[in-house]
Amino acid sequence: MNLLADEGVDFPIVCALRAIGYQITWIAEESPGISDSEILHRAAREKSLLLTADKDFGELVWRHRKPHAGVLLLRLPGLSESEKVQLVCQVISERAHQLAGNFSVLTSRELRIRQPPA
Fold first, then answer.
1. Are 26 and 14 in contact (CB under 8 A)?
2. Dihedral over Cα of 59, 60, 64, 67: its sign
3. According to a count of CB atoms within 10 Å of the terminal CB, is the N or C end of the chain lower?
4. Into how many domains does the chain fold?
5. Where in the sequence is the domain holding 69, given as residue range(s)?
6. What is the pLDDT of residues 10-37, one digit of tens each?
7. Residue 93, domain CATH
């Protein structure tokens, strides 16, 4: 599974996912400052799961019905850096097949996976 990380995703998460073998592009390295619409379009075109901490992607997917290949919204305040890294890596490793094509929200307590309207 290919991954595309928005600028707001912590660099240690990107590094950890690379270390366990995921192909992940980090917008902060390649195209800093591009719009959320461009990021979502790129992720869809490349068939990449989008990792983000930006709730604006929810509006693009749900309200504007923009195409995507899956979005994982990270809502992890209060966790240490190492806890965030461990949780994100675990969820992607164990649930990647369920995340693809869906809009998911990861909190410290749960993972909610919802299929957006067509």
1. yes
2. negative
3. C
4. 1
5. 2-114
6. 999 999 999 999 999 999 999 999 999 9
7. 3.40.50
Residue 31 has, within 13 A of its CA and on its CB side, a CA count of 13
Place of tokens 């209060």: 78
Residue 31's identity, in one-letter code, is: S
The pTM of the whole model exceeds 0.85: yes
**For residues 38 and 57, what is the distance between their CA atoms, to the nearest angstrom?**
11
Q: For 105, phi and psi rounded to 5 degrees? A: -125, 125
pLDDT in tens, 43-95: 999 999 999 999 999 999 999 999 999 999 999 999 999 999 999 999 999 99
- Residue 13 · residue 88 · CB < 8 Å: yes
Separation between Cα atoms, residue 42 and residue 49, nearest integer Å: 10
